[in-house]
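Try this one yourself first.
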């Protein structure tokens, strides 16, 4: 989706959806599965929050890892436009390996990754960059490119093999900087701006690719509170414009603020988080990170409970952690 048309997007299938007003992800849309059975419905392979978009990324029975070392197996996952899918998992659980496999940077050990209707391996790198954009964690730059030059690098997905950036490419890059609120940094050197500003520049670079899906690796890591909130707001806005977002984070409250679906990755397995009560979410996070529930509850911010309606008080618990694959 072109940034210059972004404000016109999403007027049909998601009209009237104000992401800033959403109370949190639709985590209670399904119930009735025994979490101990490990045979719940395949919620991580949904097709967006409203079900109106065909998945752009489809992983089926995916095995991930490296030669001689399997990191995960039996993974099934869909990512669509107009949705934010958040991945939570402890260090070493395989989040980065999963992202690299979905992006075609490393081959799957088994199973298949489809982008659109084609296996990821059958896309050229330039063609794939028009569909998927990757936002790494902000790092110190080595070369003294200007911020505008860094964002222009995202336009290489839209240029000819021997072409330089056109006037249109520069206009798109400036619009992306404007959308991220950092147009005033265009002539500054990337190495001289703050970590939060670098993160926003990397998001602008990805947006300049005009992708269908943006994959974000811990986009709020090492940022101060203000920049964390700005990045989350930009994620909401991009979703509203029609971009699908797949992100991982170590901040569960951030996931609850912006995600339509939340998936847990542990011991190389994916489970969808299906909850509508804060106690159930606390218990699920305690399981995920091998902590006592009271430690999780004490560590979460006070605003956490306001993100989830406590709808399960009268009946039994309605939270499941459902396996997203079927090995039967």
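Now uncover the answer:
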């Amino acid at each position: 989706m072109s940034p210059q048309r972004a404000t016109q997007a999403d007027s049909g299938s998601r009209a009237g959806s104000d992401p800033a007003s959403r109370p949190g992800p639709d985590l209670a849309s399904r119930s009735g599965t025994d979490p101990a059975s490990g045979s719940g419905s395949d919620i991580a392979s949904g097709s967006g929050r409203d079900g109106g978009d065909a998945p752009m990324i489809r992983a089926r029975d995916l095995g991930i890892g490296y030669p001689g070392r399997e990191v995960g197996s039996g993974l099934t996952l869909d990512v669509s436009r107009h949705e934010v899918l958040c991945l939570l998992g402890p260090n070493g659980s395989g989040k980065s390996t999963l992202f690299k496999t979905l992006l075609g940077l490393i081959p799957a050990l088994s199973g298949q990754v489809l982008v659109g209707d084609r296996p990821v391996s059958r896309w050229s790198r330039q063609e794939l960059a028009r569909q998927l954009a990757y936002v790494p964690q902000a790092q110190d730059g080595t070369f003294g490119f200007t911020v505008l030059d860094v964002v222009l690098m995202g336009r290489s997905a839209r240029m000819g093999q021997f072409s330089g950036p056109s006037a249109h490419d520069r206009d798109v890059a400036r619009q992306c900087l404007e959308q991220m609120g950092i147009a005033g940094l265009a002539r500054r050197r990337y190495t001289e701006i703050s970590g939060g500003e670098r993160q926003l520049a990397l998001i602008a670079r990805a947006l300049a690719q005009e992708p269908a899906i943006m994959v974000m690796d811990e986009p709020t890591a090492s940022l101060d509170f203000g920049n964390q909130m700005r990045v989350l707001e930009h994620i909401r806005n991009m979703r509203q414009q029609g971009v699908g977002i797949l992100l991982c984070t170590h901040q569960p409250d951030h996931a609850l603020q912006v995600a339509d679906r939340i998936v847990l990755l542990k011991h190389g397995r994916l489970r969808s988080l299906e909850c509508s009560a804060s106690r159930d979410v606390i218990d699920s996070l305690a399981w995920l990170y091998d902590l006592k529930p009271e430690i999780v509850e004490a560590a979460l911010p006070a605003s956490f409970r306001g993100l989830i309606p406590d709808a399960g008080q009268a009946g039994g618990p309605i939270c499941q952690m459902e396996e997203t694959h079927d090995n039967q």
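Discussion: Confidence is low (pLDDT under 50) at residues 1-43, 47-51, 311-322. The two ends are 40 Å apart (CA to CA).
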